[in-house]
Specification:
The chain is of the alpha/beta class. The protein has one domain: Rossmann fold (3-Layer(aba) Sandwich), CATH 3.40.50. 36% of the residues lie in helices and 16% in strands. It is built from 7 helices and 4 strands, in the order E-H-E-H-E-H-H-E-H-H-H. A 4-stranded parallel β-sheet has the order 2-1-3-4. Helix 1 links the parallel strand 1 and strand 2. The longest helix has 12 residues. The chain is globular and about 40 Å long. The relative contact order is 0.20. Bound molecules: iron/sulfur cluster. Iron/sulfur cluster binds next to loops. The site of iron/sulfur cluster has 11 residues, from loops.
């Protein structure tokens, strides 16, 4: 495993004014999906939005990130915590992996507690498929509260 990982982040355009605070904090602390890189150097080589539904920028953004050396694309946690969650998530993962040959990780920062409660009540993630999708960002309650 390389000890220097270059990553790109694509966020849901619903949160396009987001300054990236939670993602960058999680990256610095190696929390949420960035637990994957504990013990490794990580460099953020690209950060953009999907461009808004239906997510046309996902078709192009990875190319630019690859020019900066991106080895993996993270789809930010907003794609699973927004309501409704992104309906194109599977297509995005499949497209980036097959067209660009890059692995995709679903999620960035830990799921905040308020979203956790909402989606528990709604049953959004009550299937094995969804549990798999949120596995990197479903942390315990103290962490969820810290990202609320
Ligand atoms: S729901 Fe999906 S396609 Fe729509 S803005 Fe968010 S990430 Fe993009």
């Amino acid at each position: 495993m390389s000890d220097h990982k270059k990553i790109g982040i694509i966020i849901c355009h619903r949160y396009h004014t987001c300054a990236g605070g939670k993602c960058l904090r999680a990256l610095r602390n190696r929390e949420g999906a960035f637990k994957l890189y504990r013990g490794q150097e990580v460099e953020l080589v690209g950060y953009t939005t999907c461009g808004g539904c239906p997510g046309g920028n996902v078709e192009y953004a990875p190319a630019e990130m690859i020019k900066n050396g991106a080895e993996v694309i993270h789809l930010a946690t907003g794609v699973v915590v927004g309501y409704p969650p992104c309906p194109r998530l599977d297509a995005f993962c499949c497209f980036v992996e097959k067209s660009y040959g890059l692995p995709v990780v679903i999620g960035t920062h830990p799921i905040p507690q308020k979203y956790f409660f909402n989606h528990q009540a709604l049953g959004t993630w009550a299937t094995p498929a969804w549990q798999d999708k949120i596995k990197h960002v479903l942390d315990d309650e103290p962490i969820r509260l810290a990202y609320n």
